[in-house]
Design goal:
Layout: E1 11-15, E2 20-27, H1 36-52, H2 55-59, E3 67-74, H3 80-94, E4 98-103
Parallel strand pairs: 2-3, 3-4
Antiparallel strand pairs: 1-2
């Protein structure tokens, strides 16, 4: 499962030490790919639906009350546009108490 599969959650992990649940997005696409931003938006929307609909807590009851983190695990370092997109997503999700990070 990857960024191209908008209807699936790629990976979920809980961390009791820092009280977080992380939903990871596996991304192999170059930042120059013209479809990447749309695919990322669809994937994040799917993740937010999974969280908001209660499916996350139903599948992972221990995640209740944990900080939610969406992690974009990218194979490629973001270019300038990618960095701006990551910052924008992070700011938007912060407003609904969801943390967003990108690792490459």
């Amino acid at each position: 499962m990857t960024i191209e599969s908008s209807g699936t959650i790629d990976l979920i992990a809980t961390n009791d030490e820092n009280n977080t649940v992380t939903l990871a997005i596996s991304d192999h696409l170059e930042w120059s790919d013209e479809n990447k931003v749309d695919m990322l938006a669809e994937k994040i929307d799917s993740y937010l639906y999974y969280i908001d609909s209660g499916q996350l807590i139903k599948a992972y009851p221990d995640a209740e009350g944990m900080t939610v983190n969406i992690l974009l695990k990218s194979m490629h370092k973001p270019n300038e546009m990618g960095s701006m997109i990551i910052d924008s997503i992070s700011e938007s999700l912060e407003e609904i108490d969801v943390k967003f990070e990108c690792e490459y």
